[in-house]
User: What shape does this take?
Amino acid sequence: MDGATRPANDVVTSGKPAPDALHRGEETMSNGDAVNRIEIKLRDLSQLFETLDPLPFRARDLAAHAEEYIADSAREMPRDKPFELVVYLPEGTGEQEVARDLRASIATFFRQRAAVTNRELRELFSTGRRTLLIGCLILGACLILAQAFAAFMPENGIVVFVEEGLVIVGWVALWRPLEIFLYEWWPIAKERKLFERLAAADVRLRFYDPAGHNGV
Assistant: This one.
C-alpha cells in the first residue's frame, strides 16, 4: 500500500495491549474516489474500548490509546477526503453483528466528542464576549482618567507617567478577549470538524488468521 506507516509500539497504551497500527494514508477506491484510510489490527475487540465502561457496547467510549491513534492519524491526512477506518479482527468473530455495532459505536463516540468540543467553543466565545465588554469598559475608564489628569494637573513627569500608565492598563484589559477571538477559537473549531468527519467515517471489518505468520 501507498502511504505512511507507524509501528505498533508507537501506539500509546493504557494498561492493556494497544491496537496494532497497520497502515494509514490516502487510498483510491475502485470508483476512482480517494479516501483517507486508517487501518488497525486487534487481537480482541476489547482493545478498542474502555473495558470498565458499564454502558452497552454501542455506547462505550473508545479506549484512550485507540482514540489517540485514530485522531492523530486523521490530523495528518488531507482535509478534503472522507475517512475510512479498517479494523482487522481474528477469524471467527460474528461479522454482521460486530460490523453493525462497531460502526455505531465509533460514530456515536466521535459525535459525542464533536458535541463536547462544540460546547467548549461556545463557552470560549461567551467568555470572549464577556471579557471584551469588561475590557472596553476598563479601557474607556482609563482613557477618561488619563485625559482628566492631563487637563487638571500641571504637566510634569509624574503626571505623564500616570497618564501613559492608565492608557497601557486600558489596552492590557483587552488582551484576553483579543487572544480569544484572534487565536484560541480556531484550533477548537478545527478539532470539532475533525471529530465530525471521523463520526461520518466508513468503518469496515477485515478478518485474519491468528495462526498466520504475520497475523494478517
About this structure: The two ends are 14 Å apart (CA to CA). Residues 122-191 form one domain. The helical segments are 64-75, 95-152, 157-172, 175-199.
